[in-house]
Every structure is written in C-alpha cells, then in structure tokens.
Design a protein that fits this description.
Layout: H1 4-18, H2 22-25, H3 32-42, E1 49-52, H4 61-68, E2 73-78, H5 81-91, E3 97-101, H6 109-115, E4 122-128, H7 137-146, E5 148-159, H8 166-175, H9 183-188, E6 192-200, E7 205-211, H10 214-217
Parallel strand pairs: 1-2, 1-4, 2-3, 4-5
Antiparallel strand pairs: 5-7, 6-7
Bound molecules: S-adenosylmethionine.
Protein name: Methyltransferase domain-containing protein
InterPro entries: Methyltranfer_dom (IPR025714), SAM-dependent_MTases_sf (IPR029063)
C-alpha cells in the first residue's frame, strides 16, 4: 500500500512533468476572479514581506508586483523543481523574489530562521491550490498562521466540493489532491476577522482570509 510519503513523491514527480504545460492548462483566465480577490484580500502595501506557498510556476508574481512594485520581499516556496524553474524565469524581471524548494509540511518558524531570515515574519501569506494536496494540512495551516506578524493575513484559495461531482473528480485527477477538505472551516476557528467568499466556480471554489490572533497563538512562538 502507498504511504503518504510515496503519494507525495509521486505528486511531485507529476508536477515536475506537468510544469511544462501548467500555465497553458491552468491558465490565468481560468482562476482570474478568485485570484484577483485573493490578492486583494492580502491587502498588499509597498515594502511588505509576503509568502506564496505553493508558488507553482509563479502565476501570482506580476499581480503581487502591481502593489509591491519590486519593494519588500516575496518568498515563493514549492516542492517541485519543474514548477520552480518556470517560476524562476518569471521572477527574473524583479529583484525582490526569493524562491525556495521545500516541503510545505516542514515550514515553521525554525525553518524560516534557518533557511530564509532569522526572525522573519510575514505581512501576508497566500496559499493557493496547495492545501488540497498537502499532507498534514491542519498542521500546515497552524504553522502558516504562526509565521504571520500580529494582525498579518492568511489567504487561502482552494476547492471545496463536499460531495465530489464530475468536476470534483476531474480536479482531483488533474491536481493530485482532495476537493472536500474542510480547509476554511478549520481556518475559521484559528484566526480573527475571518471572511470567506465561496461564489467561485459555481460555489465550488473559495477565497478565505483571516488575520493572526496574537493572544491565541503567542504560545506557539
Ligand atoms: C495546483 S498547483 C498550485 C500552484 C500555484 N499556487 C497556483 O495557484 O498556480 C499545486 C502546487 O503544489 C506543489 N506542492 C505539492 N505538494 C507540496 C508540498 N508538500 N510542499 C510544497 N509544495 C507542494 C506542487 O509542486 C504544485 O506546484
């Protein structure tokens, strides 16, 4: 039987291959409405430090730069070398993007201190189409919230199809993830000022935002 590690490794091999056509299949226009709201909810301002996980081929970079304008810092993390090599090509236009190959399930404060910058905290984090595929997704959400500055924003954009229909099965097959994980429902109990809009793709895709609640999470520091 396939272990979680085997499944993850085979998903990453798949994304290494898929990277060649990802921007064509998963086109900018297909997710535009949801992405536009997700980035709006990050409430970006010049000189901020943000994390995009998984950054995939870097489809969000130019939208981030509309607000950051090559100031501050964008950290992009993905586990697929193929996806990251596409992201690298896009990132060349600017000097404020740092790309790192890493497993989302291992990213916490210690990891940031060791591999990015000691004591770095983020103004906002965008996790788009990632948590539906990551193992141990609840822990990833907890860790991401804990990487935010107090009041910083976590934005999740993903699928939620409670009873997978034909599109759900297709998305599971193409994306190598699940479509019925209660991602925003879990997040709701962990953040302040939670909001969700699930009006995308006939109510099957959502954008959720919430901010880090200092009191409830400071014990995790
Ligand atoms: C559907 S793509 C989304 C990429 C990008 N966020 C977007 O919206 O275009 C899923 C991405 O998750 C990455 N991924 C899967 N498991 C991962 C893990 N454990 N850690 C980091 N990245 C992972 C894949 O390599 C792939 O780039």
């Amino acid at each position: 039987m396939k272990t979680i590690k085997d499944k993850q490794a085979s998903a990453i091999r798949y994304y290494d291959r898929f990277s060649k056509i990802y921007d064509w299949i998963s086109s900018d226009s297909y997710y535009r409405k949801a992405r536009t709201l997700a980035i709006e909810k990050m409430d970006l301002k010049q000189n901020q430090t943000i994390l995009n996980i998984p950054c995939g081929t870097g489809q969000n970079f130019s939208n981030f730069q509309n607000e950051l304008n090559n100031t501050g810092k964008i950290v992009g993390v993905d586990l697929s070398g193929g996806m990251l090599s596409k992201a690298k090509v896009k990132a060349k236009k600017w000097s404020n993007i740092k790309l790192i190959k890493a497993d989302a399930t291992e990213i916490d404060r210690d990891w940031i201190n060791e591999y990015v910058d000691e004591g770095l905290e983020f103004d906002s984090i965008l996790c788009d189409l990632g948590l539906s595929g990551f193992p141990d997704w609840k822990n990833v959400i907890d860790n991401l919230i804990n990487l935010l500055k107090s009041g910083g924003k976590l934005v999740i954009m993903d699928w939620y199809i409670e009873k997978p229909n034909l599109r759900g099965w297709f998305i599971k097959w193409v994306g190598k993830g699940e479509v019925n994980r209660p991602l925003y429902q879990y997040m709701e109990g962990k953040v302040d000022h939670f909001e969700v809009d699930h009006s995308f793709k006939n109510g099957e895709m959502f954008v959720a935002v919430g901010s880090r609640n200092k009191a409830s999470l400071s014990s995790q520091k």
